[in-house]
Design a protein that fits this description.
Radius of gyration: 15 Å
Strand order of the largest sheet: 1-6-15-8-9-10-11
Distance between the termini: 35 Å
CATH topology: Jelly Rolls
Structural class: mainly beta
Shape: globular
Order of helices and strands: EEEEEEEEEEEEEEEE
Number of helices: 0
Largest sheet: 7 strands, antiparallel
Oligomer: single chain
Length: 207
């Protein structure tokens, strides 16, 4: 259900998927803060283990035409293993993806991406030396998506290009996620949120 108190001027109406979560919006700065519950994640274990979809994403229905969604992602407070703020794509339990600013088992913040077509394909990208990172997802049309990260929100580093085969008639939601698989909670601040209704024509030239 759409929550009118959780609205960002730049975006369509936001609602929780696949579960209810906790969040707040500062209308003066246009920032969104999400607080995850403890022990929550999205994962479809590639080895056949139990699925987990208890993390909450605050999201909107994706447009049918190409677009890009980006934000600066900051995790507030102490970090536990695998806690993360992320941009998310959700269709159903077997078709979803996320681009994360995640804490590694070695305690190093990283850009990590997960794409799930029945099973999750989990890939570590680069280490992040700053306290925050810009993340971007881009819908290219025909079920094709791209993930990028950036230090400044201007030049974008390629993370991943992938196909997400969404079942016919199933809406796709894109938005923001906080997870804390091993911790008590994870507070994530999303700022400089932007949506551009245009096609990313080159996924590897920094644009």
């Amino acid at each position: 259900m759409t929550d009118p108190q959780l609205a960002l001027d730049a975006l369509p109406p936001l609602s929780w998927v696949p579960v209810e979560g906790e969040g707040s919006v500062d209308p003066t700065t246009g920032t969104l803060t999400l607080r995850s519950a403890g022990g929550v994640d999205w994962t479809n274990d590639a080895t056949g283990g139990e699925q987990q979809h208890r993390a909450a994403s605050l999201a909107f229905v994706a447009p049918p035409t190409p677009f890009m969604l980006s934000a600066n992602v900051f995790v507030d407070g102490d970090r536990t293993t695998f806690d993360a703020g992320a941009l998310s794509i959700w269709s159903d339990r077997d078709h979803w993806a996320k681009l994360c600013f995640e804490n590694s088992p070695d305690g190093e913040p990283m850009v990590v991406s997960v794409v799930t077509n029945t099973y999750s394909d989990d890939v570590n990208s680069r280490l992040v030396v700053d306290s925050s990172v810009f993340l971007r997802l881009a819908f290219l049309g025909d079920d094709a998506w791209a993930f990028h990260s950036s230090t400044d929100g201007e030049r974008w580093d390629f993370v991943r290009l992938f196909h997400l085969a969404v079942p016919a008639g199933t809406p796709t939601y894109v938005g923001f996620l906080s997870q804390a698989p091993c911790g008590d909670r994870c507070d994530v601040v999303f700022s400089d949120v932007r949506i551009r209704h245009s096609l990313l024509s080159d996924t590897r030239n920094g644009s």
